[in-house]
Amino acid sequence: MKNALVTGGSGGIGAAICRRLAADGCKVYIHTNKNVKTAQILADAICADGGSAEVLVFDVTDSNAVADVLTPLVEHHPIQILVNNAGIHDDAIFPGMQASQWHRVIDVSVNGFFNVTQPLMMPMIRSRWGRIVNVSSIAALTGNRGQVNYSAAKGALNSATKSLALEVASRAITVNAVAPGIIDTPMTESTFSAEDIARMVPMKRAGTPNEVADLIGFLVSTQAAYITGQIISINGGII
User: Which of 32, 57, 72, 112 is the most exposed place for a label (fewest CB within 10 A)?
Assistant: First the structure.
């Protein structure tokens, strides 16, 4: 049984990823920062269905807190599957954007990626097998009004994906990013109307969290061993 960590695992897309990886036979560590009750309900549901799941609580922007949780966890058994899904929006048009909005969004997506991924790398490298998937966004590929901070954060994540993939490819570790478009979550319900979605998306619908999870499930499987350094869009044909 491989150990898998999903950051932001209690959210809509994160929960779907956790359920998929558990169904595929992984021991899933569900990360959360504030939604501990929701994460525990998810873990209990996975276990009730015959899977294996455990909740981890830390702030991805706090390197010491991350290390305190992850370092002892991988001392004897590496986490070989990592899905960096944690990310936040704090939207504003750029002329009116506060410095705190810029730094907060960058901190979670970019510094959070480093804080979580770096302490897991050497145990993963020693095991000579691993899968890392970073959850990016269509905003990193096309840009989006009011999301200069978010687009910058996810764009940096895409570049980090490609560079890290080169560093660890010889150790049978793949590193890819998935860039969702409009996905049916509570966050998008308040952002896009049905008319907006029909106009913007060639498939005339939002994607589902399970569709994103299925893509990630494939990328972390043995069948995807020759796919690395890629930014894979899942957006219903928008681009």
Answer: 72
User: How much is the pLDDT for 107?
Assistant: 98
Structural domain boundaries enclosing 226 = 3-234
**Which residues, 6+ apart, have CB-to-CB distance to 217 below 8 Å?**
17, 20, 21, 24
Q: What is the rounded distance in angstroms from the CA atom of residue 134 to the CA atom of residue 6?
A: 10
Reply yes or no on whether 226 is catalytic.
no
> What CATH code is carried by the domain that includes residue 196?
3.40.50.720
Question: Does the predicted TM-score (pTM) go above 0.85?
Answer: yes
The backbone torsions φ and ψ at residue 193, rounded to the nearest 5 degrees and listed phi first, read -80, 165
Q: What is the largest CA-CA distance in the chain?
A: 52
The single-letter code of the amino acid at 232 is: I
Q: What is the pLDDT of residues 196-208, one digit of tens each?
A: 899 999 999 999 9
Encoded tokens for 156: 């940096």
User: Tokens in use for 193?
Assistant: 């109307």
Q: What is the DSSP string of 183-207?
A: B-SHHHHTT--HHHHHHH-TTSS-B
Please tell me which residue in 58, 102, 113, 150 is annotated as part of the active site: 150
Burial of 5 (0-12, 13-18, 19+ CB in 10 A): buried
From CA 27, how far away is CA 237, in angstroms rounded?
34
Q: How many structural domains does the chain have?
A: 1
